[in-house]
Write a structure and sequence with these properties.
Length: 309
């Protein structure tokens, strides 16, 4: 098609075709991207997304590839791998502000903060994924979340403009934001964020972070995992309910509900997304039938699923 040829001409050698997305997801699952580029900074991210939109082609952004399940059929349009990793710290009399591009790894950023003696972001030391994904889903752990740090986000809109969204405008909730209301490949794209921190004691912060890391090692499975599959329902835990439904260790193909934590589904090797989806349906139905709880996915389903969802 003419639009595809125009995109090839616009992005040139930076454009890959039929690239397996299993190389770019934490669970090592996913079919091919129709087109794929890698953005090294926020300007490249905006440029590549604008190019796709200009030619009427959907754009899908992947950061660390966690908390997403990419279909076996892959993703149509352009997939942009976000490697925008600029970080700038600024101290004022009353606070510490940090400007972060959206491809920055959350754990890496948290460690930088610890080393500088900046407090308020230690909750993120063990959280996978990137800042952009954390804004989209209001990532959190250990009683903290991104909403508690974010001052504003710089957002690319479908008309090509870049605007600042405040914390209030982003409408944060439990593992969600206003950005999740925009579906499809023309959704607003997070380019960067400003976060507010405070001064702290580096040794104390490091001790807290080590405690978080130890807890994660004890409670979450190693290896290729998507992340927490379902949101915790009010007053309960998704993993506990799935375990009580007798599904811990359940396998379909090479997908397994972890024997360590039942809200983590792991890839035992060359796992298919369709097998994970079958486990999702099985767990959802079992918990609803036995406990009357309608579990809501935390993981985002990405790509071409046909009638499977």
């Amino acid at each position: 098609m003419a639009e595809r040829e125009a995109l090839r001409a616009a992005l040139g050698k930076a454009l890959k075709e039929r690239e397996p997305l299993s190389k770019y997801t934490s669970a090592r699952i996913g079919g091919p991207a129709e087109f794929l580029t890698i953005a090294g900074n926020a300007s490249e991210l905006a440029e590549q997304v604008r190019a796709a939109w200009h030619f009427g082609i959907r754009a899908t952004i992947l950061g660390g590839g966690s908390n997403v399940l990419v279909s076996d059929s892959g993703v149509r349009g352009l997939v942009v791998i976000n490697r925008a990793k600029g970080v700038e710290f600024q101290e004022t009399d009353n606070a510490v502000l940090v400007w972060v591009e959206s491809g920055v790894n959350l754990g890496a950023l948290a460690r930088q903060c610890l080393q500088r003696g900046y407090a308020g972001f230690e909750w993120a030391t063990t959280v996978p994924g990137t800042v952009g994904g954390a804004v989209y889903g209001n990532a959190g752990a250990h009683g903290g979340d991104l909403a508690g740090n974010l001052v504003m986000a710089e957002i690319l809109h479908h008309d090509g403009t870049v605007r600042e969204w405040s914390n209030e405008e982003l409408g944060f909730g439990y593992r969600t934001s206003a950005l999740k209301g925009h579906k499809g490949g023309y959704a607003p794209v997070v380019l960067g964020v400003e976060l507010a921190l405070k001064r702290g004691n580096s040794a104390e912060l490091q001790a807290t972070a080590e405690g978080f890391a130890s807890h994660r090692k004890r409670t979450q499975p190693p290896g290729a995992s998507i992340g927490s599959m379902f949101k915790n329902p009010g007053g309960n835990y998704a993993g506990r309910l799935i375990d009580m439904a007798g599904l811990k260790g359940k396998r379909i193909g090479n997908a397994e509900i972890s024997t360590m934590h039942a809200n983590f589904f792991v890839n035992l090797g060359e796992c298919r997304a369709s097998d994970v989806l079958s486990l999702i349906h099985l767990a959802h139905e079992a918990v609803q039938t036995r406990f009357g709880v309608d579990l809501e996915l935390e993981v985002e389903l990405v790509g071409e699923w046909g009638g499977q969802c």
